[in-house]
Amino acid sequence: MIENVQNISVESLLRYVHDMLFNGYRFITATSVDNGDGTVDVLYHFDKDLEMKHLRITVNKQEEIPSISGIYFGAVLVENEMKELFGLNIKNIVIDYGGHMLLSDDELEAPMARQITIINKDKGGVPQ
Fold first, then answer.
1. Contacts of 128 (CB under 8 A, 6+ apart)
2. N or C terminus of the chain: which is more exposed, having fewer CB within 10 Å?
């Protein structure tokens, strides 16, 4: 379990991130976890004087998430990564690779997102 986690809303994300910058915290990275129920937890990790603080938002996969790269430029890479690998809808990334920072057109879309398999009982339980 991560200590010092603060659950916040998507709407308040940029305000909280501005506060972190104002209070002297450096942005470390962000991580995302597919909850398997159509939602994703996104955690933003910060450090000041060896004290970690974390902000968590829980979003529906189609919900828009504002980019924090306008506040912490270093978020550009991890936001592009989460957008590609988890299929997150992150808007206004300072440098947006449009889904091609890591993946080519031939690769599986959002390979880190949980894939839902539909079993067709009419076809003898064959996944569709």
1. 117, 118, 119, 120
2. N
Query: What is the radius of gyration, based on Cα positions, of the chain?
Result: 17
CA dist 112 and 7 (Å) reads 23
Which domain covers residue 57, as residue numbers?
Answer: 5-127
Q: How many domains does the chain have?
A: 1
- Do 90 and 107 touch, CB atoms closer than 8 A? no
CB of 60 closer than 8 Å to CB of 39:
yes
Tokens representing 36 are 């398997």
> What digits encode the pLDDT tens for the residues 87-122?
899 999 998 766 555 555 555 565 455 455 444 555
Q: What is the pTM (predicted TM-score) of this model?
A: 0.78
Q: Which residues pair with 32 in a beta bridge?
A: 42
Which CATH number belongs to the domain containing residue 65 in this structure?
Answer: 3.30.460.80
26-34 and 5-7: which strand pairing?
A: unpaired
Q: Which two tokens stand for residue 106?
A: 């031939």
